Amino acid sequence: MVAVHPSRDVTIIAASEPKKPLPDQKKDAFFSKYFLAGQQMADPSDREVPPDADFVERFLITKRKYIAFLIPLTVMQVLWWLTAYRYNWFPLFATRWQMPAIMVLGSTVAGMTSEGGGAVAFPFMTLCLHIDPVTARDFSLMIQTFGMGCALFVVLFMGIQIERHSLLFGCLGSIPGMVLGFAFVDDLFDAGQKKMMFVSIWCSFAIALFLLNSQKKRTTYAAIPDFKPWKAVVLVLTGFIGGIFTSFAGSGVDICVFSINTLLFRVSEKTATPTTVVMMGLNSMVGMYTRAVWYGDVSQLTYEYLKVTIPVATMMAPLGSFLGSHFHRQVLACFVYVLEALSVLGFLITQPPLVLVLIGAGIIIIAFAFFYVISRVGERIMTAIERVTFASPAATNEQRRAKKSKTDPRKRQGQHQQQVQKKPKHEEQFARRLQATEILVEAEHECKALAEKEICELENLTFENSVNTAEVEKEVKELEMIVSKHEEFDKFLSDLTDTMDDGVSDPVATFYEALPAIERLLAGLSI
């Protein structure tokens, strides 16, 4: 096993026979891995409290996740209760209680997964309450405006990692697609066809996602790697198609962009999910404005359901975002499987015409084939990126033999690599882990060397009598800032190494997810 510590050499520890964990330890490890995976932040340094922080700043940093949940909850609840008291909305609960009850689940799902609240509201209203799809669509857009708007605030305030390219280019395509869908596409299908298409397309996506996640130790990224113009075009087209789906179902752009991110670009569900939450919140606002203000033909039933459901949505959607940011990506994917299975079951319970069932089955097969092809293309793209990012194990061995005359840590890594080659089953995994460790060690050595160089320059400056005192003080402050950045980078490397060696996380996947942060910190060090 390779152990890396800040300001120390790399040590090779002989692998001993692992101890069998106790049953309670297995349960704790399982729960911690899947339900306490931790939040994936856009900038991990935001969690650190500056030494000179005052009480308010320290409180905002240490209690950020609770503040992010309480601010939208408090504001929206106060406004709703005042308005409900002023216009006496309370009698509506006697006849419109169904949607507040179901949206306890729907709003939580909206904040937690890639599917908006409409993914629960639309099938429930059309299949169970037998409400026309137009009313269900309008209600979905309006309740998502409030619920996912609050969840959007939670994601942005907490600084949770989102895929910014997907958000920007996806919205550039989805908003025009939704507006055009309202005008030209919505009237082309009847109620039964809309229900069938909604259920069929997303059922096939759930199947494709399940097959993708069945691949153990699947490599994922925190952001779209090697972003290029053709990827922007793909996101715009995906957003446009998703906007059309949203125009008749109340949601769709979220799942479309989520599917392309996870299947094609191999973005982790922990990044793709909050990205779609923000995207669906923005699109719902535009959709609500278009339907309520521009068209102005929203039914009274929609407004009645909306009035009694707002307090539930504004409470549960931020809670869903808060919980979902801690869950493992596999748990988030499981929510998608369950939701789509329930949608299909609900559609079949309504006993639709046989023609619609057959057409729906055909759409599932065709859409599944499409998603499967997308996932295979994504696998090839990922392989090409890995070939560019990391050399092959054979090339790595040659590089180690060429560098064996360098420092002792490098020699010991070369010896350990030769031992690893005796294990063909795990050769590739160990090679990648050693590559990751070597990169960390090299970065740490360069960091220390640069720090020593800066300190030497500082000492030389203090002995030059011709230098102005003010200039010396300025140089001292700049060098102190540089040293502080080095210490911050050392701490990050130490924490990353501990995470890679904790025995629970996949070291290769952990290193891949940490690469953007490493590059950002290295850029700040001018290495």
From TrEMBL:
Pfam families: TauE (PF01925). It is found in: Membrane. It comes from the Eukaryota. GO terms for cellular component: membrane. Keywords: Membrane, Transmembrane, Transmembrane helix. The chain crosses the membrane at residues 66-82, 102-129, 141-160, 166-184, 196-212, 232-265, 308-324, 331-349, 355-374. It is a multi-pass membrane protein. Residues 396-427 are annotated as: Disordered. Its main location: membrane. This is Calmodulin. It comes from Nippostrongylus brasiliensis (Rat hookworm).
